[in-house]
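Lecture 7 notes: from sequence to structure.
We start with the chain below.
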Amino acid sequence: MACARQSAIEFLKNARTNLVTDMKNLPLIIENLYQQRVFNKHEVDDLKAERTEFDKARCILDWVSKKGEEASYELLRILDVTKKRTLHPDLHSRISCFPFRWEDEEVSYSFGTKPCQNYQTALKKKAKRILKYQREHCCKYLDGKAQVNFHFIPVVLERDSVMKTPQYKIKWNNKKCKKLRPKKLRAYIPTEQQALSPVDLLRCQDKNILLIGKPGIGKTTVVQEMLRLWAEKDDRELDYMFYFDESVLSSSSNDDLESILFKVYLKPMEKDRKDVFQDIEENSENVVIVFDGVVDLEENSTLWKIMNHELLPDAKIIITCRSEVEYDPLFSDWPTQKVYVEGFSEESINSYYQKMLGHDPVLLDVVLKNQELFSLSHVPMYAFMIVDLIQFKNDNVFNHQNTVTEMYIHIFRVAVKKQIEQIDKYLRENKDQTFVMLF
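Predicted structure tokens for the same chain:
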């Protein structure tokens, strides 16, 4: 109750010792005070001229207190709304103790300085370009209807599960050996036992997440869905998200942190470079870094130091790897939350084919009534190949029950035919040149 009787000036006076040392991200505080007209341009310039962070914090508190109760109240509002970025965690409960007026209007505070906001906007545009390229790369194999319906279908994610292989399930669930083949095939399709989604992974408090799965099972799709969620929403919890694929991981280990973020990934405006890098380093709890497809990282390289939080100590690090890499010494001492990507559930398989093939019962029956193809479809990459194959058909290849071997043979034929068509097109377009072909 004593807290409720305090004025804003008294609260700042009593908390001054802690605030001077535990306020952080001072440029953001100053920016909001300027936007709310507590400080003018000259005062902002004078604050920037102060040599140390301690001096800047001291001046902010002293100048605001001298401006009176409303200015002091505004500073407390700013600190409360932006506390994850501007206050040490020990002060979060204390600042929330102040009796803010319930009738306060909703004020739009900045959660980053102008240079940082500009770079965050550019990062989201970069993320959308990555996703657009991935979509176009996949959709070039599909017809127009499937391209429209091409979007994320949930895959089964199991947190720290005891991985039960199909052989394990067959052995224990079918004690009477030589059960029917359909039952064995269904053992490959995962069952979703707990709700875990890309949103959950993005929001969870775990700082290290290892996404594990076999090739084509959906690891890249999951992290790119996380990238999409961040890029398309106004997320005040995460300021920066960087996505590095295998090509970057294999060629950038010797670069320093600033070069990896700005030279390799996305360069900010030159005048903003210092402010942005300082914000990333000092507020790394608002940073997510994805390493998609880790096989090996050179010890003590910059990427290795990021992974082990020697750099960006509070950032969320998300790594995807294949199942055989899980027990590599690289991860043996890495405290992590393991998440197993197990592919499409039965519901997702049905949903995927309905989206990609429409509701034509003839086309759907090609897969949904073929237990071998249906079982294979728990791997999203195989499901994609089957869709491409069905759409490419120009004969009665699917008028009978196909084996997986027949499907692979037909895919090979299609791939060869497409390659020959591309070579033929290239030769026609360059018919005036002389070619020497070696076989």
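Points to note: The chain is about 55% helix and 10% strand. The beta strands are 156-159, 208-212, 240-244, 287-292, 316-321, 337-343.
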